[in-house]
Design a protein that fits this description.
The protein is mainly α. The protein is 78% helix and 0% strand. It folds into two domains: 32 residues; 54 residues.
């Protein structure tokens, strides 16, 4: 599979992800509407977004600048290898 390079398709893909996320969130909240559920859902989404930023940006730019992110499994394997190398 080729990499997606067209700016228009990249934006379209982002918009489709946003629509998918909004529909899923609305369906979950419609099924079990409660202020506590909505608040916990918002906190979970925020925390996952921060984790995503941490994994994709912080580790690559601040923890190990030589590492290029290739996925969560790649990240775990990288840290397992680097931990074994250190005395």
């Amino acid at each position: 599979m080729r990499n997606l390079t067209s700016p228009a398709w990249i934006v379209t893909k982002g918009i489709l992800f946003l629509i998918l996320a909004l529909l899923a969130a609305l369906m979950l909240l419609a099924r079990n509407w409660d202020l506590r559920t909505a608040l916990l859902f918002a906190i979970a989404v925020w925390a996952f977004c921060r984790f995503y930023y941490f994994v994709f940006y912080v580790i690559e730019h601040y923890v190990d600048p030589t590492y290029r992110f290739n996925g969560l499994l790649s990240l775990v394997q990288h840290f397992a290898r680097t931990k074994r190398r250190k005395p």
